[in-house]
Amino acid sequence: LTQLTPHENIYTVPNILTFSRLVAAPVIGYLVLHDYHAWAVGLFAYAGITDLVDGYIARRWNLQTVVGTIIDPMADKTLMTILTVCLAIKGALPVWLAGIILGRDVGLGIAAIYYRWISLPPPKTFSRYWDFSLPSAEVHPTTISKYNTALQLALIGATTAMPLLAVDVSTAMQAMHYLVATTTIWSGASYIYTKDAVKILSNEAEKKDKRPEDRE
Question: Are 84 and 93 in contact (CB under 8 A)?
Fold first, then answer.
């Protein structure tokens, strides 16, 4: 019998909320560049709330999907990348820090492309590569990566809101810059030395198929 590659339902509420964050990211960037700070902060808050809500819904009603493990961090990184660039252009974020943040994300992006390709069940075609209903690999964020994401979002959110503040927080923000730079480098390295950060699903399936034979 021909072995069929399993598909999963990707049209779930958590995935739709996550996709809405992806769509919101360039809009927030536009608002920052054109000094619509209040609107930018409001939409950024929406992105933060949906980031919490989609995870809760997925766990509460067992709606986790492999594609969700990919697009959820992708939505966070898209928002981070766009706002990092926009805030650096506006002079609100140091260029050296923007370079560290973007450099880590570029490295992880290249790694994700590589792992998606090597883990994709045959036949390996362009259309199948972009068909995310075909799960091939899972990405499990490391502990330091989770902390780093929270710190980066806090920094970006605070930097976006700074024009609306009436108090001087420049000293605190400078300390935050160095803290985020440290956790960004650390979290990037953690994906290299952490064993279970990336799991190839095809390999897991092969192991399960071989177990009955081993008992014989």
Answer: yes
